[in-house]
Amino acid sequence: MTDLGFHVRGYGPPPREGRPATVLVHGLGLSGRYFAPLARRLAASGATVLVPDLPGNARSRAAARRAPGVGRQADALARRYRRLSSVPGPLVANSVGCQVAAALAARHPHLVSHLVLIGPALEPGVSGVRQFGRLVADAPREPLGLLSLAAFDYLVTGPLRCAASFRHALRDAAGSFEVNLARVRAPTLVVRGAGDTIASGTWTRRVAGLVPDGRAVDLPGAAHAAHYSAPDAMAALIGKFTVGEAGEAGEPG
Hints:
By secondary structure, the chain is of the alpha/beta class. The protein has one domain (2-244): Alpha/Beta hydrolase fold, catalytic domain (Rossmann fold). Helix content is 45%, strand content 17%. The protein is built from 11 helices and 9 strands. The protein has helices spanning 36-44, 70-84, 97-107, 128-138, 144-157, 159-174, 177-183, 201-210, 226-229, 231-242, 246-249; strands at residues 2-3, 6-11, 22-25, 49-52, 89-94, 112-118, 188-193, 214-219, 251-252. The protein has a 9-stranded mixed β-sheet with strand order 1-2-4-3-5-6-7-8-9, with helices on both faces. Helix 1 (36-44) crosses helix 10, helix 2 (70-84) packs across helix 3 and helix 3 (97-107) crosses helix 7. The radius of gyration is 16 Å and the shape is globular.
């Protein structure tokens, strides 16, 4: 479906008023396509799942004349969700998408019932050059299918927009990200693929600790995009967490 150039993929029962939807938020320069394995598994359990291409990215590239900042993307996503449902739902994000999700949960707390952050990036105090080096180191640990999908998405979004989005994300990491995390009121699960070279264990535990009700867990056999390489395990974690069994999903942050 497309709303004013804002492309959203739907899985499971169609969204309707009064029914919560699970929203999956992609990382920098990407589309929501790499969430498809997880979205299908969540939908198989009966969930309504929405997977947007954020404004300025991939199929939503024309929704913004230039790369929007983290806060603008969060507000655009909140407006889109509000038109579909008045019931708060789970929000799941990966990588730099975690910054968008944290901003949305902080600014629009009535829309988010649970927050799941997978491999949150970027880490404050780490230079852009080091962050890029971590991304390069992670690539060989990811499935080949993901690498080809990501390369195509980066080309569609465009190198200039990717670079501009990276600058926005670095500024957000240095300023607003931790502030937003501290303002999140939804129960939060921070998941790190055990082989992730981008989001360190120390950082992901700090993210969980900044949220008033945050927990952290490592997922064996996965790297930065754990939702893609281990969708069954990720769906099981999210399922337990969102039905109130967070004590089984991770340790307190």
